[in-house]
Amino acid sequence: MIEHFDPSQQAQEHIQTYAKDLGTPPPAAGAAMVRLEIDGVAIRVPEGTSVLRAAALADINIPKLCATDSLEAFGSCRLCAVQVEGRRGTPAACTTPVTEGMRVTTQNERLARLRRNVMELYISDHPLDCLTCPANGDCELQDMAGAVGLRQVRYGFEGENHLQATKDESNPYFTFDPSKCIVCSRCVRACEEVQGTFALTIDGRGFDSKVTAGQGEAFMDSDCVSCGACVQACPTATLMEKSVIDAGQPEHSVITTCAYCGVGCTFEAQMKGDQLVRMVPYKGGDANHGHSCVKGRFAFGYASHPDRLTTPMIRESIDQPWREVGWEEAIAFAAARLRAIQAEHGRESIGGITSSRCTNEETYLVQKLIRAAFGNNNTDTCARVCHSPTGYGLKTTLGESAGTQTFDSVMQADAIIVIGANPTDAHPVFGSLMRKRLRQGAKLIVTDPRRIDLLKTPHLGEAQHLPLRPGTNVALINALGHVVVTEGLEDHDFIAKRCDSEAYRAWRDFIREPHHSPEASEAITGVPAEAVRQAARTYATAGNGAIYYGLGVTEHSQGSTMVMGIANLAMATGNLGREGVGVNPLRGQNNVQGSCDMGSFPHELPGYQHVADPVARGRFEAAWGVTLDHEPGLRIPNMFDAAIEGSFKALYVQGEDIAQSDPNTQHVEAALSSLECLIVQDIFLNETAKYAHVLLPGSSFLEKDGTFTNAERRINRVRRVMPPLAGKADWEITVDLARALGYPMDYAHPSEIMDEIARLTPSFAGVSYAKLDERGSLQWPCNAEHPLGMPTLHELDFPIGRGRFAITEYVATEERASRRFPLLLTTGRILSQYNVGAQTRRTDNQAWHDEDVLELHPADAELRGIQDGDWLGITSRAGQTVLRARLSERMQPGVVYTTFHHPGSGANVITTDNSDWATNCPEYKVTAVQVEKVSRPSAWQQRFDAFDRAQRGYLAKAQQEATP
Amino acid sequence: MSLHNDAQLIRMANQIAANLGGGRDEESAVAAIRRHLETFWARPMKQRLIAGLEREDSELVPLARQATQQLAERLSEPASVTGPGA
Predict the structure, then answer these.
(1) Domain A823-947 belongs to what topology?
(2) A35, A172, A196, A910: least CB-packed within 10 angstroms?
(3) Which CATH architecture fits A2-107?
(4) Interface test with chain A among B1, B15, B16, B38, by most A beta carbons within 10 Å
(5) Which CATH code, of 3.20.20.210, 3.40.50.1220, 3.40.1190.20, 3.40.50.740, is assigned to A313-384+592-707+722-734?
(6) What ipTM score was computed for the predicted complex, to two decimals?
(7) Are residues B83 and A918, on separate chains, in Cβ contact within 8 Å?
(8) Closest Cα in chain B, distance from residue A922 (Å)
(9) C-alpha dist (Å) from residue A784 to A702, A763, A765, A766, A790
(10) What distance in Å separates residue B30's CA from the closest CA in chain A?
(11) B47 touches A: beta carbon within 8 Å
(12) Tens digits of per-residue pLDDT, A203-247?
């Protein structure tokens, strides 16, 4: 008897087993085993497995076309017909579940004839240009024609057919050629089941059936979000990547991790030599299970964009042209400047910023360089401006600075609260998974000033929207807590067993106070009291309640308080420590979690070990051979203030564009201009680099080895698929700089850096490249106690023993609407662009969003005589910028919205330097503004244009001089 | 010494006091604020805040002022190099 290993049940042997399409998805885990016989081979598989899948597991390969293991069985192509002893006819193997004692025949003369007849009909209406077809070498139709032995088409090709159907080339990344379509519905089903957008449909009946985007529109004009799931599902050349049409079939592939958002999708980078032909989301990826979004799958062209920096450059001052130099000269120049500045202004006058886009190993090295070679703790990372309150808030209440669940946990949730996050745009692959659960009946509560797209998704359960005023999160979470306590919805058992009783009693007394009631806070939040009561009841009584949140929680003056309020609510209702519940921060950038884990913050060594803790510090001192400062260093906003004041003089920035992404741009520009030495290591001349004295060309994620850690604490491998364009991976540049500063670091490969991390960081003690290669990924903590990592946190206890309720008094932000600035601006991101846009603006994703616009409610527009498309001046107490107007009912009156993907938009010229009380995370989400019609760009935009032109001129000049 | 920077530090300290002051008695509120400053603020920021205590026109709220005084006392003790414990 052969007992068949099913890859979905066990995570081993990733690469071999996931390479094969088993035809239908696996049944739910834990099913009883069933014995059957296929073609005389005895097989044992879990109940619920299809005959098609059972056969494929035994390497009995039944021909198929409409079946693929990423989609539910459909039974339309009839190619997988089989015979079952004791049953009549020829059932489709894909829709026939296995039963005990079943005996199946997959090959005989009758089945062969049937399959040939089916194929003959398909091919009679299919172009015969196989040799020049872009799918040649990767076409299931061609393979099946071969498999069934099709030798003739008796019907001829003269009859009515679809061969003249017009191609749709509107999408920049793929074509739709209906002449090659066999109407298997795989694309339509992928759009529904995998992506959840429902943009595709089958229009017409019988011979007229055709795949249509939207209401018969071009793909680009439809609801299609270009995730590419349809392209991946298509068995023919009907939906085809343009990159494959251009380059032909790839010849080898490497498994790696996406460098866009915090979902951290695993991809197969399919290569031709060192040319990347296409990215295909990997079925064995633990975060994405074979799905992706438009960024990860298609927007990789930036890596080979002509704007890539390839040569180190230096200059004395920022009003001078750049000079191209060798690596050694650039590094020596940088090191000499840093040491000279320290000699004159003191050890604490310099610092650095680690990148949340670079690998864990690279981030670790930068903070090590700062602590050990600079000799201070002036290190920070862009998590400062996004999720630092998550670190503070979760550590204070639950004892660990990280989300509690896996992404897959959402499939067990019964009620889902989404606060200040927009997963369909910012975490699209997780958004699709969440939507799948909503279609199965989970209830949804969205807490957001805007009516986000998740509310429009098809649901089976109810969808509640709490449209609160920006800046009033804490009042709302307290009202939810108040309802839980006063209506007796607490999980007393959980609280008694798992939480600190004194802290709980204090919180309970606090939250019961009448001013926290929904009725009292309605005047603050603008959310009707009854809606708040209903939401609290839904969350507390649904069974499994899960909270997902984003920057709409953290980027406030009370970001940290809100995170603690969320943890309070989860503890009070017992929604922690198992599948389907939890507190889940959705991380913005690919390695925000990792950069925090790796000790990027000025007060914490790797693994969140405080610099003042003598034991932890002692271990690092012994390993690094230096004495470390026991006082925290400066955070990014503190560095800016100190630079303007004149006590902070030099900064090393790796892969981070503070000039565009940080708030109050003019303040940042003033700070950067005050520096005597700014070293920027990046793949492009970003906005920060325009203020730099040393430019060190970095490498893209395709050009180096390392690891990223996603929002579920999952450590994924990044693998090099091509050599670094400028000759060095980022970690090698940091090593060179350290050596030039007299602090040699000795690593031959990033795996050795990970070994050092594992030695010094208790939560990473069990992590190694060998284990990552074997397991595919690991979720920290990974140590002796949990050698394979820990998917769900806090199952038995909290790292601080008992969960600690925190007092979360609502303190109104100082930033409030006034007569002068009557509107509240909130900012965010959209699907096609990523963060500052440095990558996505250099791809065809521009086709979706080539400028940032100001969204405002028609009522606010009418009051000011504004029409859609008008130029608007947006003014706050920090500055002014000009954007085009877009009227939108998604907004509530009084609230306006924009994105910050394009530098010239100046979205952050308007945002202020208000920040979270605990972490200085900027209050991006609340800025009081006025808008009015204008006819020309703002003064800042005019200055920006001139500066930008000059700086790009300096770069072009250097490049011209270098190539005579 | 820039006035902007001093004002900024005082604003931050007051914000911390507003958020850590609620739901506690005065003594533990002051201790919580002091611990926060100790744990998260850089040395030069602490020193600047402490130096500002002597200014008559300082806008530090009472809880933040007491916490800053406590911080100053602890920093002058040699044992404080072991960092934020109790």
Answers:
(1) Barwin-like endoglucanases (2.40.40)
(2) A35
(3) Roll (3.10)
(4) B15
(5) 3.40.50.740
(6) 0.91
(7) no
(8) 12
(9) 32, 10, 7, 7, 12
(10) 15
(11) no
(12) 999 999 999 999 889 999 999 999 999 999 999 999 999 999 999
